[in-house]
Specification:
This protein is of the alpha/beta class. The protein folds into two domains: 248 residues, Rossmann fold (3-Layer(aba) Sandwich), CATH 3.40.50; 59 residues, Phenylalanyl-tRNA Synthetase, Chain B, domain 1. 38% of the residues lie in helices and 21% in strands. The protein contains 15 helices and 15 strands. Strands 5-4-3-6-7-9-8 form a seven-stranded mixed sheet, with helices on both faces. It has a three-stranded antiparallel sheet with strand order 11-10-12. Strands 13-15-14 form a three-stranded antiparallel sheet, with helices on both faces. Helix 5 runs parallel beside helix 6. Bound molecules: S-adenosylmethionine (SAM). The site of S-adenosylmethionine (SAM) has 21 residues, from helix 3.
Length: 408
């Protein structure tokens, strides 16, 4: 028994509640800031991630795959996500609950016991493996026994697990749910790490959260492509310093090729804030801003995903399901999902209104609804964005937006 195991052998437990599940946590973990150093990881702030994942699984089961589901929770920690899936999603054929940490496995077993899951115990398969090993074992199974859904929820980047997950998952109408918490990397604070981990250049701009999400989508899609697969994003969800991608997986060469058309770059002028996107490979990088015509201030992000990041009917269904949920985060989820619906057909990027007002030395910040109304009155598109509640998406150019803000 290693030192850590010895230390926590007689540890006391506390009981917590989340969604429909009760679960034990090591009491020493109770007041820790969520981190790798916990005996078994748990982060209350990620409850919304698990809520939305369950809504997404139910919506997927209704809209795209009505069969009983084989699910893999590849990094389960306390098992809270899996237990909630079993209790809240119902139509489960089999669930693999896996974690590499032996202490997590002990806790998962304890947590299954206190949730009265006796009648579904035969559906549960617990393992203590590296996620990649589990995926490579699943990859050898017959097509109809392979997982319909794979969830990847690592510490930091999911990049090391995506290739083997695509090898393991069913090739038709399956669902991939991938979290990244390395937001400083994806948002361009750690630019070199992003180039290394995601093969893409980030930009630390006002709309870096959207750029980061699109880099992650691009990366997942490219790894799907080399496995002869493609992804169709259903929901791209940012909250509390994590990004969760929920996407359908398909195998169809023509559609994969259409996806490749979604890859491209964003140009951003550091002088005037003008931004534009460019599909495909750039052979000659422009240096002069198309708006202010300043030389040498034009930067770029990419390659990244320029296509749609959510699917509209899926969002409608999530919103409907959320109405009947009793999640603690119900109102927050409703707000986020309504903004995802608003932003679905809007141009890439958004403008931080507070920052623009400060730059313009305005006395006060006009109400978001008023700004959107005024932009629309001038014939442009405008919406809120779930990436940032103090920002607006619009196809009005930044120069005109500044003029409009000054006039309000
Ligand atoms: C962020 S936590 C997962 C949280 C969990 N999904 C939840 O909802 O509470 C990451 C977990 O991955 C586990 N882990 C780290 N590397 C792993 C690997 N290579 N394979 C499987 N599990 C791993 C850790 O032990 C940890 O429990």
């Amino acid at each position: 028994m290693n030192e850590n195991n010895q230390k926590f052998k007689n540890d006391k437990f506390i009981v917590e509640k989340e969604g429909s599940a009760n679960f034990f946590l090591h009491s020493v973990d109770k007041n820790n800031i969520p981190s790798k150093s916990m005996v078994v990881f748990y982060n209350k702030k990620m409850e919304i991630n698990r809520d939305v994942t369950n809504l997404a699984i139910m919506a997927y089961n209704k809209l795209f795959n009505q069969n009983k589901l084989v699910i893999v929770d590849s990094m389960a920690a306390s098992g809270i996500g899996s237990i909630r899936m079993l209790k809240e999603c119902k139509n489960v054929k089999k669930i693999y609950i896996n974690d590499i940490n032996p202490m997590a496995i002990d806790l998962i077993k304890k947590n299954i016991q206190i949730n009265n899951l006796k009648d579904v115990e035969s559906l549960i398969k617990i393992s203590k493996k590296s996620a990649n090993l589990l995926f490579s074992e699943l990859a050898l199974m017959k097509q109809d026994e392979k997982p319909d859904i794979i969830s990847i929820d690592p510490f930091g980047t999911p990049n090391l697990y995506i290739d083997s997950a695509f090898k393991a998952i069913k090739k038709k109408h399956s669902l991939i749910c991938i979290t990244a918490t390395d937001t400083p990397v994806l948002f361009g604070i750690r630019k070199k790490a992003c180039l290394r981990k995601y093969m893409s250049k980030p930009l630390h701009t006002d709309y870096c959260k959207e750029i980061g999400a699109r880099i992650l989508l691009y990366f997942i899609s490219r790894i799907a492509n080399i496995n002869n697969l493609g992804i169709h994003p259903l929901l791209t969800f940012y909250s509390n310093h994590f990004i969760r991608i929920i996407a359908l997986v398909f195998k169809n060469k023509e559609r994969i090729f259409e996806n490749i058309e979604n890859y491209g770059y964003i140009f951003h002028c550091n002088n005037c804030g003008y931004r534009t996107s460019f599909k495909g490979n750039i052979l000659q990088i422009p240096h002069i801003c198309m708006s202010c015509e300043e030389d040498q201030n034009l930067d770029l992000a990419g390659p990244l995903w320029l296509g749609k990041i959510h699917k509209e009917d899926f969002l409608h269904y999530l919103i409907e399901l959320n109405k009947y949920s009793d999640f603690k985060n119900k109102n927050k989820i409703e707000k986020i999902l309504s903004f995802t619906l608003e932003e679905i057909n809007m141009p890439i990027s958004y403008y931080n209104i507070h920052k623009l007002c400060e730059e313009l030395t305005l006395q006060s910040v006009p109400k978001m609804d008023l700004i959107i109304k005024k932009i629309k009155e001038k014939g442009y598109l405008a919406s809120r964005t779930h990436f940032d509640f103090i920002s607006i998406k619009t196809n009005m150019e930044i120069k005109e937006l500044k003029r409009l803000l000054s006039s309000l």
